[in-house]
Amino acid sequence: MLKYSPEVELLWQQSFGAGGFDTLCNLSLGIHGVAYVTGESLQPSTDYDVLTAAFNAEGTLLWQDLVHGEGDFDRGRAIAAHPAGGAVVCGSIRRLPWNEDVITIRYDSTGNRMWTRTFEVSTGSYDVGKVIAVDADGNTLVGGGTSAFGGGLDYLVLKYDPDGNLLWQAHYDGLGGLHDTPADVATDALGNVVVTGSSDGSDGFGDVVTLKLATGLGMSRDDFESGDASAWLRSE
Ligand SMILES: [Ca+2]
Ligand SMILES: [Ca+2]
Ligand SMILES: [Ca+2]
User: Fold this and answer.
1) Are 77 and 50 in contact (CB under 8 A)?
2) What is the pLDDT of residues 147-171, one digit of tens each?
3) CA–centroid distance, residue 144 to ligand 2 (Å)
4) Which residue of 36, 51, 82, 214 has the lowest C-beta tally within 10 Å?
């Protein structure tokens, strides 16, 4: 962990870990300059676990937490500071090879887990969380991939309310019917959701595909072709 001033002067550096082989994957800055990070740590008895930590503005470790699922590879992939304090993390837990589930964890500012949710589209499907955002109302958007619908991996988007209740899920299978992988998710002030990533076209080459979802709308191709002006799809 390194923090630089606007003049690129090194303000502090901090090493930390959970005693195993530790890797960080994502960082988000919250209120009061708190830095939230997530990744994974290789532990002696539980294999890889989701590792999440928070540092204050001066670089002091405030807390760290490990989450183990029920298999071996459990990984934190993305983290977003929450407007009400604390942060929310997404990633994956592995039940069996090629049967992973999306995990989402809401932490308060002191590192307590307020809620933890695992999600799979259908029994035994490969489902992972890769990107995350929190909207102005404190709802959490998780983007990732799922194998549940065939056609390789599809975009998967989950929306949780501030208490961790699943509001809706949506998926998108590109025109190639192959792999579709989100690279980022964001929300606007109205609660619309934008997802971008790569989608294998029918020619076998990847396209950039960006989707805007209207509030509460599903993400099947029919939704876009129905002509709802508040939702759109762009492919380049
Ligand atoms: Ca584990
Ligand atoms: Ca699964
Ligand atoms: Ca697909």
Assistant:
1) no
2) 998 889 999 999 999 999 998 888 8
3) 12
4) 214
